[in-house]
Design brief:
It is a single chain. This protein has 79 residues and is mostly helical. The chain contains 2 helices and no strands. The protein is rod-shaped, with a radius of gyration of 31 Å. It starts with a helix and ends with a helix.
Length: 79
């Protein structure tokens, strides 16, 4: 019985020492994943803005002379 008690004590001590290390490693890994997710979101937003401005540049030379052309343009593509 004495040997099993010591083994149990060593296991508990090992887990007590390993738990903070595991916690810190998880925090570092989680922070890296979160940063990667934020960068992907920013890149996607930048690509959407770039596409929007390219579409706007394509319609720069359009002349809107009457009301019908304005409403048709808004109904067709929203620009």
């Amino acid at each position: 019985m004495f040997i099993f008690g010591k083994i149990k004590t060593y296991i508990i001590a090992g887990l007590a020492i390993a738990l903070p290390i595991i916690y810190v490693m998880g925090r570092v890994g989680g922070a890296a994943k979160e940063k990667n997710k934020v960068l992907k979101d920013e890149l996607e937003a930048q690509n959407k803005a770039s596409d929007f401005y390219q579409k706007m540049a394509g319609h720069e030379d359009d002349t809107l002379t009457d009301r019908n052309s304005v409403t048709d343009r808004l109904r067709n593509n929203g620009l």
